[in-house]
Amino acid sequence: MSSTIESTEHKALRTAVAALGQRYGREYLARVAREGGHPDELWADAAKLGYLGVNLPEEYGGGGGGIAELSIVLEELGAAGCPLLMMVVSPAICGTVIARFGTDEQKRTWLPGLADGSRTMAFGITEPDAGSNSHRITTTARRDGDDWVLTGRKVFISGVDIADATLIVGRAEDARTGRLKPCLFIVPRDTPGFGRSVIDMELQAAEKQFELTLDEVRLPSSALVGDEDAGLLQLFAGLNPERIMTAAFAIGMGRYALARAVEYAKTRQVWKEPIGAHQAVAHPLAQAHIELELARLMTQKAAALYDAGDDMGAGEAANMAKYAAGEACVRAVDQSVHTLGGNGLTREYGLGSLITASRVARIAPVSREMILNFVSHQTLGLPKSY
């Protein structure tokens, strides 16, 4: 069946996850964030129903599906107002990388826990001085006997306080060329020399952001994920699902905001008719809906390509999906808040905080400008500007 027409199984998954989301909703997540807690109850329920590990191999307790299924779970939780950000990181990035490239021991150690939600893993790539330029990553990994020693800094790393380990991207020296190449390492939370400090964010979210320091962090050789010489391939095997899941996160948020605005526009009466009868209110909401649906189509395409093993095709589509979803989300949230007028900025209606949250999809994990760079030189063949 064409990936543009959703299968009966995928529709059933959407319905089931939406029902779980409705039991929790936006108020639950807002309360957890206010109290400085984590959405443990929702995480546990989603895990119990098999949603968190739906993309991981069955032999390790997962659902045997792909990023297509996992992105549906995140989108529907988002549409209910309670997305789980750590789904982007733990099962989608780290689970995928370990399932595809990890040793048998790494798979046995991590995948069952990532699948049933009992263990989580964070992902550390961004650095203070590298930004979008991953070639400038300065976290280095050097050999010392059988061990690896990591030194460096990371920034804007989600959920390190609750993650059992962080998958760190470092650079090791190639013995043949002397050049630095990317490598991925599993760093358990309590490893000596592995420090973290919370970044004070304007964004109120349950998942905190951290700056990490790696001060001569000593790891056994078994901490290296996959082949030392295939680091770039392994890295992109994790970054494409990250983009697809970020798109799903954005689409869910946009749908949530739009649904609140539509509900309000149907009932809010200032003159004779509800305000939704006026085209100046109705048309922008219709446009937001169209843009979210278009973004979802590209997200489905990206997930289908990735799950089919087409990493190159998925790379292009995942970037486009993330771009389209980020733009659609920001516009949907903006229009929804505007539809409610002053009420859109009250805590009672809960839309104002999404103005900040929706920007995340434009900025992370890669900015829209870097996606335009990717498309201009990879797809269109235009010369690089950097």
How would you describe the overall organization of this protein?
This protein has 386 residues and is α/β, with parallel strands linked by helices. Helices cover 51% and strands 14% of the residues. The protein has helices at residues 8-34, 40-48, 67-79, 86-101, 104-116, 231-267, 279-307, 311-340, 353-363, 368-379, and strands at 121-124, 140-144, 147-158, 165-173, 180-188, 194-198, 209-219. Strands 1, 2, 3, 4, 5, 6 and 7 form a 7-stranded mixed sheet that branches. Strand 4 and strand 5 (180-188) form a beta hairpin. Helix 7 (279-307) runs antiparallel to helix 8 (311-340).
In short:
The protein is built from ten helices and seven strands. The chain is of the alpha/beta class.
Percent range of helical residues: 40-55%
Distance between the termini: 41 Å
Average pLDDT over all residues: 94
How many beta strands in the DSSP annotation?
A: 7
Query: Which regions have little confidence, pLDDT < 50, spanning 5+ residues?
Result: none
Task: State the secondary-structure class.
Answer: alpha/beta
Shape: globular
Largest sheet: 7 strands, mixed
Radius of gyration: 21 Å
The count of helical stretches stands at 10
Bin the strand percentage.
5-15%
Q: What is the string of helix and strand elements?
A: HHHHHEEEEEEEHHHHH
Topology (elements, then pairings):
Blueprint: H1 8-34, H2 40-48, H3 67-79, H4 86-101, H5 104-116, E1 121-124, E2 140-144, E3 147-158, E4 165-173, E5 180-188, E6 194-198, E7 209-219, H6 231-267, H7 279-307, H8 311-340, H9 353-363, H10 368-379
Helix pairs in contact: 1-3, 3-6, 4-5, 4-6, 6-7, 6-8, 7-8, 8-9, 8-10
